[in-house]
Automatic annotation (TrEMBL):
Protein name, per record: ABC transporter ATP-binding protein
Domain of life: Bacteria
Classification via PANTHER family: CONSERVED COMPONENT OF ABC TRANSPORTER FOR NATURAL AMINO ACIDS (PTHR45772:SF9), CONSERVED COMPONENT OF ABC TRANSPORTER FOR NATURAL AMINO ACIDS-RELATED (PTHR45772)
Organism from which the protein derives: Paracoccus pacificus
CDD domains with a match to the protein in the record: ABC_Mj1267_LivG_branched
GO MF annotations, alphabetized: ATP binding
Domain ABC transporter: 2-250
TM regions (residue ranges): none
Gene3D superfamilies reported in the protein's UniProt record: P-loop containing nucleotide triphosphate hydrolases
UniProt cross-references to InterPro entries, sorted A to Z: AAA+_ATPase, ABC_AA/LPS_Transport, ABC_transporter-like_ATP-bd, ABC_transporter-like_CS, BCA_ABC_TP_C, P-loop_NTPase
Amino acid sequence: MIRVEDLHKHFGGFRAVDGASLEIKTGSITGLIGPNGAGKSTLFNVIAGVLEPTSGRVFMDGADITGLPPHTLFHRGLLRTFQLAHEFASMTVRENLMMVPGNQAGESLLNTWFARGRIRSEERALRARADEVLDFLTIDHLADERAGNLSGGQKKLLELGRTMMVDAKVVFLDEVGAGVNRTLLGTIADAIQRLNRERGYTFCVIEHDMDFIARLCDPVIVMAEGKVLAEGSADQIMQNEAVIEAYLGTGLKNKEMLGA
């Protein structure tokens, strides 16, 4: 699905991504972990077209997508969420979802005059699709709530819901668990697993919560200092001395802490 080859992203003399190569296989839920400053979010931003790479290539389904802008990648089915949710706070949860698909008939001034029936029909279809998404995510009771009033975890579910309003192929989730209580985190994990299993979504997940990563992800890729340090199952990663050193700097004696 996604292949990254010798990717570099430098900011002046700082090498945020420094020769990273990795593969995200179709149908997988791949975890991406590493200490703060490892280059994980920068890597996401380069893959998703938010940042231009200094050098290296990114491929999707064998096609070179290096440097393509986010809106082009969006239409190819590559979506990325952020650590902080980007909801339209004054709009309802349902309206936030209905805004996602592009090229809607109502966006044209001429259509507002001459194609009102088409606009109404499209809006009914979008509303029905949004309600289906909300039901899938078990937040249908929040459909008419202003998005700005949602909790952090509910906003993360709304972000996930946006990916369901288009034909997503691969979704990059950046710290989906940050600031989310354990109950809602479980709901988010369930939704990711169902989307993967029932709808064929491929995911790559940045997350610091190792319980969350162990529950969802195989394989797990570890970054440190802009490079790929290790790859394997969650169990293998938690037994890897180099990974433990990168996270804790204290070696094997703290292995149990990594799995705690």
